[in-house]
Amino acid sequence: MHLWKKKNWMVIVEYCNAAMDSSAENSMYVNKLWVQCEYESCLKWRLLSSEDAARVDHNKPWYCFMNTDSRYNKCSVAEEDFPEESQLHQSGFKIVYSQLPLGSLVLVKLQSWPSWPGILCPDPFKGKYVTYDLDGNVEQYHIEFLGDPHSRSWINATFVGHYSITLKLGTCTKKKKWYKSALQEAYLLYGHSHERRLEVCRLSKQDKSKADGKVAVVAKKRMQVSRNTTGKKKPKFRRRIRKPILKYSFENVCPDDAMSKENVVI
């Protein structure tokens, strides 16, 4: 069984191990679909039956009031409970995430950071913005994080969701100015097209040969400075830890490390 997601639609559950005994509680989610209300003030997920999902026009927006289940057809009603992904795996199911379009404005949920806005853009060295698992399902996205400065990383699809313009300033105990600048930039880009958003992705346009040349020039200048100062002053031999000037590719980066100082590409 293969389920799907389109636009803000979430593909739900498919069997990943037929030999495992699936619980009745988790089996109720099979052959059903989660759909997201597109009101910016809501954005709640609603569970639709296969019959209701078949009647939905995928080219038009969907809202809570369109739900045939009267218990969950108002934006004021909370979402239904849904089992943790680990619980589904234990029962022989898996969640399938569909592919978001290139240039999408997204939020990334990191473990020790607030939800951070970014743009789906091509990796400058791989030339692609998404990777797939062995089953052909979306596995990771390449994201350029907004803010001053920008940074980029490959992030598991599990942690990537749509950006909401109603997002409130989260609790950020570190790099508060960086986070605030990221939210401001995302707000300005919200109404722009995917193509316009890609234009501001400076890091994805970075050419590797130029980057290598920049590192070489900086290294050469440092050597010249070192030679010029050697004759004037007796050098002091101290052990110094050199910080990397540039980092090019972040494959399989842990979400908690994606926004760390070491993973920032300027």
TrEMBL record:
<dbReference type="InterPro" id="IPR042778">
    <property type="entry name" value="ZCWPW1/ZCWPW2"/>
</dbReference>
<protein>
    <submittedName>
        <fullName>Zinc finger cw-type pwwp domain</fullName>
    </submittedName>
</protein>
<dbReference type="Pfam" id="PF07496">
    <property type="entry name" value="zf-CW"/>
</dbReference>
<dbReference type="GO" id="GO:0008270">
    <property type="term" value="F:zinc ion binding"/>
</dbReference>
<dbReference type="InterPro" id="IPR011124">
    <property type="entry name" value="Znf_CW"/>
</dbReference>
<dbReference type="GO" id="GO:0005634">
    <property type="term" value="C:nucleus"/>
</dbReference>
<keyword id="KW-0479">Metal-binding</keyword>
<keyword id="KW-0863">Zinc-finger</keyword>
<feature type="domain" description="PWWP">
    <location>
        <begin position="102"/>
        <end position="155"/>
    </location>
</feature>
<dbReference type="InterPro" id="IPR000313">
    <property type="entry name" value="PWWP_dom"/>
</dbReference>
<dbReference type="Pfam" id="PF00855">
    <property type="entry name" value="PWWP"/>
</dbReference>
<feature type="domain" description="CW-type">
    <location>
        <begin position="28"/>
        <end position="83"/>
    </location>
</feature>
<keyword id="KW-0862">Zinc</keyword>
